[in-house]
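**Discrete fold encoding**
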Amino acid sequence: MRRLFLCLAFGWLALAPVHAQEDRALTDNGRFTMTPAPGGFLRLDTSTGAVSLCTVVNGRAECRMAADDRAALLDEIDRLRKDAPPAPRGLLPGKQDMDQALDYMEQFMRRMKRIMQDDKP
């Protein structure tokens, strides 16, 4: 019985990648995804991000590019990146900053130790 169980388990593991590929092929339509929408469906091109509104006319799908604000948003992001001051890179805190942070930690730890000792029954 144990041997049969092991054979079935290994067989299932060997076939799992094949089933996963078949399932992916059935659910994944390549680079496009379709979503139901009023009057038709939306088609998203997953590689470019372009969205089209598709309707079925006389049994044939007709797709038109949807109004896309993506280009405007990307332009605004580029503009903001150019206007923003460059972030400092590779700056480490100085010795004085480190000493101050360690002093705060030491005070915190001492206070916590006192609180824990005072709470003992």
